[in-house]
């Protein structure tokens, strides 16, 4: 299975949670906490639902946290794509 | 405040001092309706007698017996609201947020300057976010639970408009949602008045509603109160021999209500004041006791410290069904005398707006008082209660106006009456 990229994450974010005014999702956001990008926990939960639909893997709900950044989320998602069973361990 | 009783009401004995001795004032209005997407656009359309009732376009109505509605035209939430709000709202809440923005802008109040706990929100609701709920039920049953939006947790819920308005404007004072179908729009304004009197000086209140999706439409058609007439000119004709039911609409009005001292201090020019209100409940069907509408009217007048002669115009509930129309006509004739007060139902141009209807009538009454003109009831060809009602039909009627009575009845027995007085 292919890698889940930042571009795909931005697309899912826009669709699942919208875009905060004054935040440029095309900018250098990899290490910016989602909180600072204007996404609260419910927005992230809805984004996780969107990612699961996009890549066809099941992600644990507890990956949503205050410190989560796009880079950490991409690593988690791609880890699950590489090892689908890991999410259930 | 529901069904509050006033000591001495109707007995001639002096009651306690009116709770409306320092009446809260309305300083901002935001309207969205089938015949106007702003307050002044709507008001101009109402005075022209332009109806927005037409065949449903938001979904295919062919499978339903009722196919007409008062849909808000050309509404594009993407142009009016931040992107973050779109995935977590449906049409009802988007309409409400836009109306709230308009009302607050119209009031010119500085919410952050007042302080977040000095500002509150009370709105009326009926079924909540029907469209959101339908979308997520479709996702659940066609694609599975993993496809249901996390926002379903609140977006379908009846207080969702109050919550989203409160969050958007950071208004953290008193907050509530009232459900009494049509009557709720008046109940919400009255409850907001109570919060103003209790020390929250600035409130957003009223109601904006929409259930324009198959799920919402099915629920409404099952009430048996919707007309199946297909001609938009003959479909919703209250107080007419051809009254055959109601046409639902969407939209409504949100108002900013404030302490009169705050309005004066900041130099706001109010549209008018809310000076009296009462709500009653109909007796159990078959009990033989009279309907509760008359008691609501009399209690509201008592609370306002007014008599029937002080009322210059009545904005009727106008159910559009023979029996409720007869009850309302008889009530008005009994309280005011036959044909003794002008009566109108501009909702014949918008449809009945669920929880938005009473609030839109309050807004319309305030505009009417402001401009000294009573908007017409449209499409009345064969008046059924001409001996009881001086129904304003055909064209608007210009006349000096000081006080208006607004009536709203909610499905299931709710009766509410609210009295507004012109500013100054």
Automatic annotation (TrEMBL), chain A:
- Alphabetized PROSITE patterns for the sequence: CARRIER
The organism's place on the tree of life at top rank:
Bacteria
- Domain Carrier residue range list: 4-81
State what protein this is by name.
Actinorhodin polyketide synthase acyl carrier protein
Tell me the InterPro entries matching this sequence: ACP-like_sf, PP-bd_ACP
Query: What's one Pfam family the UniProt record gives for this protein?
Result: PP-binding
Automatic annotation (TrEMBL), chain B:
> Is-annotated flag, keyword Signal?
no
The Ketosynthase family 3 (KS3) domain covers which part of the protein? 21-422
Q: Which GO terms describe its molecular function?
A: 3-oxoacyl-[acyl-carrier-protein] synthase activity
Provide the residue span(s) of the region labelled Disordered. Answer: 1-22
Looking at the Swiss-Prot or TrEMBL record, what is one Pfam family this protein matches? ketoacyl-synt
The alphabetical list of record keywords is: Acyltransferase, Transferase
Q: Which GO terms describe its biological process?
A: fatty acid biosynthetic process
Task: Indicate whether Amino-acid biosynthesis appears among the record's keywords.
Answer: no
Per the record, the domain of life is: Bacteria
InterPro entries assigned to the protein according to its UniProt record, in alphabetical order: Beta-ketoacyl_synthase (IPR000794), Ketoacyl_synth_C (IPR014031), Ketoacyl_synth_N (IPR014030), PKS_Beta-ketoAc_synthase_dom (IPR020841), Thiolase-like (IPR016039)
Q: Which family does it belong to?
A: Belongs to the thiolase-like superfamily. Beta-ketoacyl-ACP synthases family.
In Swiss-Prot or TrEMBL terms, this protein is called Actinorhodin polyketide putative beta-ketoacyl synthase 2
